[in-house]
């Protein structure tokens, strides 16, 4: 992944689902220096806060990043046509969808003709092992969530930065397409063959002996009927010492599933700890990261206070208020 | 899968792991009429009870089935060489390994040269959806286990036969390579991309309106640190009305993991019911299937009585004592 040429032009296309733009928003937030701007059509009502450019205006970029991540990860015909146009204009193309760029004949032909490359960041590495669950050295933190797209990647990146700022050796371990584009490496866990989920996480975050931490990006939710298998394998493979629960305040139901309510914080954390204990009997919760994007500041602070009181853990919106309270809890719990 | 030509010659090769022969044993037990015999080397101390044949003696078969299923599903060089010899002798080759037959150059070349076919039964169907968790019509039973390879396929096939014998419409839904070879169709759930586990099960066992039952073969165990993600997605996708817990009496530790104990029956059943409730709130346990292969008959009967007393459910070894007690419990619980 470190070979994807930058800077990026972020493609939003005609997207009308705000949550589906998380790849583009993640890059704009955590790697703005790698982005020249955003390319979106008039139908797209959202901006990720970068300069709006046409393809022609964005031609100084080296790579077009398809910044859209729909459930199931498929591209429509217009996305394919736009990507092919960008390829013909000389840009490499990168995407983190289940549907691979290389499997689109028009796109593959355009790339071959011009000599640009197609980067499918969801391709898992070859030769992954099945998990073995054997205790391994080093400290690991995993973010878990009440739902998909609640801010687990944001939280993990913010926690990594806050750990580093306080002098800890700390590495972000990306498990999703956006995180991989931000970090330059990682394994898209939801794209791994099911038998190898836990083994992929053991590979992604191997034993470390330097006293530092791996901060592993969580995926899905144990309470999401589409993706809980991924979350379960991730919990077992991560062998986490510490869990951080992530939640979007006020979300009415699970993403894409109006018939499923969002679980309560305590119920969700309890279930995650129980599953995690299989491979990490001493695992403990060290904090709550709330996504309060839809609240004003007093309401956001009140939500954090309520979560902290409910669970007896530090609670913060890491994007708005910083992740330091959770880092202090980690230091308290895991003093040498 | 129904296009795999029969009869089969079962390949045991030089296998020395009895549990790893479950594909061959399953076929010999449940589809002996489809098998001409077994081909094994002198190093293999086990028989599946069929006539021992050399390749030359087994040439009347239409297809060589690689009856070995190791963790991770890989073939060694000798297996590949033997399969290539069989292909050159005019047999089609079928296998349910993660490592695909078509990816072995020697084998692919031999098959192409002679004009025989390679059947990778673990290939998932194209275009699987993500799970949606929406309630669907029809009755479904899922077998779950304390570990891998405890007899879930055997139990599911025996339960299906017992349901049919008592006049119920009942269909076996295969989720593993052996079951697919026995049934002629199915989806190898552990070979599906992780995001689609639950969706694959929804596809495998769609809504039915005839009052009959789908009996879905379980995989792995919630307590197995390598494969619990598969088991979780299977529980959610199955949307089961009824669970049957499967267990091998006396197994000292999880398969391949001496550092992991086998969970207790009550703990295991409780965890499975809790996970299943996400998509099937009224799910209930209807029985226990014990694998008592290593016990004499009095000890086997005592083990069944002990499990029945512990859980308050009918407990049987379906292979030894039949599955009828559990079918009676299903009739009692789900009377129209």
UniProtKB/TrEMBL annotation, chains A, B:
Task: Please state every residue range assigned to the domain named D-glutamate N-acetyltransferase-like C-terminal.
Answer: 130-327
Q: Sorted alphabetically, which InterPro entries does this protein's record hold?
A: DgcN-like, DgcN-like_C, DgcN-like_N, P-loop_NTPase
Q: Name one Pfam family in it.
A: DUF1611
Q: Which Gene3D superfamilies does the entry link to?
A: NAD(P)-binding Rossmann-like Domain (3.40.50.720), P-loop containing nucleotide triphosphate hydrolases (3.40.50.300)
Occurrences of domain D-glutamate N-acetyltransferase-like N-terminal (ranges)? 59-124
Name of the protein described by the UniProt record: EBNA-1 nuclear protein
Q: Which organism is it from?
A: Sphingomonas spermidinifaciens
């Amino acid at each position: 992944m470190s070979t994807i040429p930058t800077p990026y032009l972020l493609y939003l296309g005609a997207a009308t689902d705000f949550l589906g733009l998380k790849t583009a928003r993640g890059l704009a937030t955590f790697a703005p220096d790698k982005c020249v701007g955003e390319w979106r059509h008039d139908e797209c009502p959202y901006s990720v806060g970068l300069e709006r450019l046409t393809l022609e205006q964005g031609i100084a970029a080296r790579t077009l990043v398809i910044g859209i991540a729909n459930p199931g990860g498929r591209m429509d015909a217009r996305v394919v046509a736009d990507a092919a146009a960008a390829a013909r204009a000389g840009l490499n193309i990168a995407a983190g969808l289940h549907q691979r760029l290389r499997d689109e004949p028009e796109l593959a032909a355009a790339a071959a003709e011009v000599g640009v490359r197609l980067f499918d960041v969801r391709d898992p590495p070859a030769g992954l092992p099945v998990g073995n669950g054997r205790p391994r050295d080093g400290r690991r933190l995993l973010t878990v969530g009440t739902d998909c797209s609640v801010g687990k990647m944001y939280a993990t990146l913010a926690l990594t930065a806050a750990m580093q700022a306080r002098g800890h050796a700390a590495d972000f371990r990306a498990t999703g397409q956006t995180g991989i584009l931000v970090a330059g490496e990682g394994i898209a866990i939801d794209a791994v063959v099911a038998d190898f989920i836990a083994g992929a996480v053991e590979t992604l975050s191997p034993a470390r002996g330097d006293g530092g931490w791996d901060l592993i990006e969580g995926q899905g939710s144990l309470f999401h009927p589409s993706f809980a298998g991924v979350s379960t394998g991730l919990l077992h493979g991560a062998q986490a010492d510490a869990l951080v629960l992530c939640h979007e305040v006020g979300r009415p139901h699970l993403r894409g599933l109006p018939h499923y309510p969002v679980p309560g914080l305590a119920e969700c954390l309890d279930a995650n700890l129980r599953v995690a204990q299989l491979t990490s009997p001493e695992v403990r919760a060290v904090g709550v990261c709330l996504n309060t994007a839809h609240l004003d500041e007093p309401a956001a602070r009140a939500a954090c206070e309520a979560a902290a009181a409910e669970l007896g853990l530090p609670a913060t919106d890491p994007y708005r208020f910083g992740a330091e309270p959770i880092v202090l809890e980690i230091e308290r719990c895991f003093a040498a």
